[in-house]
Specification:
This protein has eleven helices and 21 strands. With 394 residues, it is α+β, with helices and mostly antiparallel strands.
Amino acid sequence: MTTTDHDWITTPVTADLLRGALDLEPTGHGVLPHRLPARARRQIPDGQLAMAEAQPSGVRLVFRTRATAVELDTLPTKLVYVGAPPRPDGVYELVVDGRPAGQASVIGGNAMTIDMATGAASTRQGAVGTLRFDGLSDGVKDVEIWLPHNETTELVALRTDAPVEPVPDRGRKVWLHHGSSISHGSNADGPTSTWPALAASLAGVELINLGLSGSALLDPFTARAMRDTAADLISVKIGINLVNTDAMRLRAFGPAVHGFLDTVREGHPTTPLLVVSPLLCPIHEDTPGPSAPDLSDLGAGRLRFLAAGDPAERASGKLTLRVIRDELARIVEQRAAEDPNLHYLDGLDLYGEADFAELPLPDRLHPDAATHRRIGERFAKLAFTTQGAFAWFT
């Protein structure tokens, strides 16, 4: 509930106060940030991707103000998995002048119930909630509110006790990244702790995160969205979703990669473009997909995954992570002969066998919070410093 001990100023949430979103949809309550544009959303074939792109990983409100208190009304959509304990509420993180300054959550909201055994989903409507940050200094400062990376969030009202204005262009480079649920931020502690957000912070760049849980599938509409988005640096992390959805065979994979990169290059002919191969994932290194949920421990709050394919199926063109790494390295080497700004990064350099021995994947697919930090730090070092793909452009 909103308090009344301030003279509140309500500011409409508009695109000039948001970073990391490609579209802003008016709703019955306010506005809903999207990470894919409307044209792409009209071509989305499944509910998983529709849910993923509406979860605002990397999206943040950014404004300049003298306010000592900020309130934000939102309508979140919580995920509820049948048979599993409740998930924690999404985390909103406050950053002031580049430094962490607080966390909050919004209780309640809508609830989307998903049955992992059948794939059935239903949504129950809920109420708008309010989060508040106060005790801020009364000087001019740049304020960022990072939205929960894993919780769809309608923005209803922004209130402050002093006027706000958009933050002027700081001259920072814009990094556009596309990947799977690992890039989306699964199991990260919060929105600034996903590995892309950590890497962006370390490198001093502005992030647009198109990490789409379960949906890094070389979709043409995603490539077109990247083509049409202004960016100074671009990376695409390809592989794990193609295996764990069993989406295509080797014959289709190579041309699909070429087509995706061709489309991105239509809008960014000379932009540094980094292709990243899969991190280590032992269940799929040599065993094709699909991945299947192991529901045996779901009631205890543990969801793990199994590789349901047969290693013998590699002979018929089924994809594994080793096959994908080899093919991506070959494709990038071939294309780089005519595209000097195209680069390759082996995902095993971000998370490999020694890392797995120390920091195993809790559910056999996704890294935990500590591993997100390691991946982010390594990516920042390998891509943005020394001889990295982005070193001379930041």
